[in-house]
């Protein structure tokens, strides 16, 4: 029996997390879902974004499945994701982008993984008002975090039989901060002589990604570029409804979809749960539940391949529940 902290989040969060929990439970794997609040709902109930109950649950369980939470834009409380990633030092954000069966996109050979540094950069939230017309925003970069994320990228490449790690920076402009990130990458690379390396500037990367994404394998980059480029990569494989991710630390991990709380489609019952489901599959792999992970993955692929029951973002007209039920049908048949 696993104990997992479940944060259902805001907007479409509860709809997609209920679907994902039902799908995992249908495999017969025994999970005690420790449901906790964070974000808007926690503010409404406890007047705080991450209540102590939630922190205690994460401290105890060390594994979190988290649906998206709403973060006020330009004002209000800091992002819950950023808080949790920093508090539990979940320094590596792993974001794979690979084509799904029968999801038509301009490219059919995308198979890349973004390893995003998850604790620094502008996400450190260090901004100072100099005067009414001037703000200084600090891009925090440390040697310690840059070495750690470079090692995480090379270790990921080895574990997953990947051939190349490419470091992404803007070190021609950010000579000190991105310069340090690049230097750390080069230092770590010396210990992984069996993995090819490459260096690219982030603007060039974006252009290359929309022209020829199959040339990329593992990409490691600072926090902000990773955030933006991974949405671009989600677009390459069929949209945000499909993009999964894992936030990994040394002894704690959080699994969440790349997308946000999608307020424009919340409570309509039409959100695609695949991104959170894919993240949950990454969680099962992390827990060593490979058979269960493959069973769910294959069931999802089968439903996509058949193309009869799809949510509107995938050009279908089915509801979240119909999509979920179809996946469960495949799982119980196996
Ligand atoms: P968003 O990712 O929520 O939505 C962007 C577009 O993609 C919308 O049109 C939405 O309907 C669509 N979309 C997203 N997920 C989908 C799904 N599963 N199925 C079908 N369509 C889907 O981005 P937006 O609107 O910029 O942000 C909304 C809120 O989410 C903000 O408060 C933001 O701060 C928060 N956010 C939270 C994240 C998290 O908790 N990990 C990550 C990103 C944003």
Structural overview:
Helix content is 41%, strand content 19%. It has 334 residues and is an alpha/beta fold. The protein folds into two domains: 1-94 and 240-334, Isopropylmalate Dehydrogenase; 104-237, Isopropylmalate Dehydrogenase (3-Layer(aba) Sandwich), CATH 3.40.718. The strands form two sheets. Strands 2-1-3-12-11-4-5-10-8-9 form a ten-stranded mixed β-sheet, with helices on both faces. Strands 6-7 form a two-stranded antiparallel ribbon. α6 (177-189) links the parallel β8 (164-169) and β9 (196-201). It is globular and about 55 Å long. The protein starts with a strand and ends with a helix. Bound molecules: 1,4-dihydronicotinamide adenine dinucleotide (NAI).
Task: Give a short overview.
The protein has 334 residues and is of the alpha/beta class. It is built from 11 helices and 12 strands. It has 2 domains: 189 residues, Isopropylmalate Dehydrogenase (3-Layer(aba) Sandwich), CATH 3.40.718.10; 134 residues, Isopropylmalate Dehydrogenase.
Order of helices and strands: EHEHHEHEEEEHEHEHEHEEHHH
How many strand units? Answer: 12
Helix-strand category: alpha/beta
Q: Domains counted in the coordinates: how many?
A: 2
**Unique bound compounds:** 1,4-dihydronicotinamide adenine dinucleotide
Q: Strand portion, in percent?
A: 15-25%
> What value does the average pLDDT take?
95
CATH superfamily of the largest domain: Isopropylmalate Dehydrogenase
Distance between the termini: 22 Å
CATH fold-level topology of the largest domain: Isopropylmalate Dehydrogenase
CATH level 1 name of the largest domain = Alpha Beta
Q: Count the DSSP helices.
A: 11
